[in-house]
Give the backbone structure.
Amino acid sequence: MKCFWAYSNHPHNVKNDVIDAINQINNSGLISIKPWETMDIEGNFIIDEILKEINACDVFVCELSNLNNNVLYELGYAIAKKKKIRIFINQNLKSVKEEFKSFSLLTSIGYVDYVNSSQMLNSLYKLGNDNEMDILSSIISGISVSNYSNLLYMKSFQDTSSSISLTRAIDELKLKLVVDDPKEVSAQTLDWYVTNLIACNGYVAHLQSTKYNDVKVHNAKVSLISGIALGLNIPMLMLV
């Protein structure tokens, strides 16, 4: 079984746990796991090479304790490509529990809580006996698409001048819109996003500058859904 493991370089203790688990499981010969840092990029765009590795893997594994935007984007892509998913979160780290309570999209996916590499290993060794349906197929099997749109627009959560200008420009196009406005609904479900992505012809998402308060959960949500849009081959524009 071939796995790709995405993770952030920070915090270092989390990265060390990941590397330790990868080395041990690769040495066992039961599962082959490729971490993103071992990839031979040779001048290519790193995201292009990462997406190739995700396309080629059986299982996408990630460590998401810090809600890293890049890892979430890759997770969304893996979901859209119907890969089996294994998510690790260390809730003993400061503020992780609070952030994941706010980031409700991951609770519907499910994750493994851990404190050391041994607990990661125990979960990964069970992958071969894991016969559950992939996340995308599970969602699609329970939805019926009847309301098609030209554009799914994910607004920023702050009414900045750029957000107001962008919304005005989109409104002037007179398209059939579905708008995810976090000021109206703080958190839609993953099923809602997948349903509206499947039913749209285009996707626009507005990430916020990190200078704003409470931006982390918003950008995490946009990163995950944008990865799904990419994996579903929907024409998309991400703005910040």
The chain is about 45% helix and 15% strand. The mean pLDDT is 88. The first strand starts at residue 2 and ends at 6. The CA atoms of residues 92 and 115 lie 7 Å apart.
